[in-house]
Fold this protein.
Amino acid sequence: MTAALNSVELPMDVLRRSFRPNEQHDRGQPCCREVELALLLSFVRKCVRRRIGGNLYVCGSPGTGKTLSVKELIRQILQWRDTTGALPYVSHINCMSKSPREIFADILMSIRVQTGTSKAICAIGTERGVEADALRQAVKGLETSLIIILDEVDRLGSKGEQILCELFSISCERSSRCVVLSLANTTSLSDSLLARLNGRDCKPCMVNFPAYSGRQLKKLLTQKAVRVPYENIIDNSALQLCAKKIAATTGDMRRALSFCSEAIDRQTKESSTATVVCEHISIEHMVSAVKQLSNTDVENIVKLLPQQTHFIICAALKQNHHSRFTKNIPLVELLETYNTFCTRAAISGLNACDFLDACSTLSDYGIFGISGAQDPWRQKIHLCVSRDVLLNALRDKQKMISKVLKLV
């Protein structure tokens, strides 16, 4: 009897599991990403059926459904056949913590495994370009399409540009059946990479995954809540608040799920000391969770950022030092202030391209908001996090702040 009772999940446990990212539940057509998935399917299907190469750059902020959509794309691809009746080969590589040589080697190994032959494996030397040449030779021997998917390609930094340039070039060669999809959290290709790709006439098509809107986030959260077989277990107003807060900053669904999980934890803790247990998530639980996680998340993120990015945050704080309200700061002015700080601290600053990448990263984390023209140097940034939270996150850098900012 006791064992049977212990095996029954409590309502909050069921709800908590529902709000975790779960591949089994999230399989199939991604909700609110039907248009983007259709664009991916259309592009790849055209290349496979016509037996031609192609390049696609899939971009968007973290937590906007890119990886989920690509997983559904792969699932459907593996059911296709080209005009000869052959299934395409798929090589899905996560670029996190990989060198260019490891990425090329992984692709070659994937070809070997799927073709069942060893001819695709070529010696990977140490000279520049040997890795790309080995892949180029392997691709020439394939009788069906090879779809290469590179996830988190922006984590490679400047090395990623070389990889993309080589792969995009291979897919554009005559009679190539190589289709390259690169996934990145940056919303555009750098000017230097675009210039190199234009020079080789292999500029990719682009599919952008915009941040989820409040309406979309509410729909996604509600979709997870209704899976729980208990009525009114979570207030509609609590989900609405969560969606609204996330949409106002990053539009990151994963962050929205974190807020919901924190609200559930708070309700569970509250119930453990209550005389009467109420299995219900109220808007008060969500308000508390949003406040706590917003500050904690930012502090943890900031602590892990490199020193150069700390200096960019300091530059933004300095620009807002005498302002009562958060103001919009032209990126050009922010760069000037940042360079002044680097000179004052006697360290080498980031170049303009890396500076823009760092600002984009801060925007992805919801610390900066970026608005304005498409030209990055005409854009403006504003702080999405309170001054006190950022200073608290940098409290271990008090000497740096005192010396450079003269704020504390």
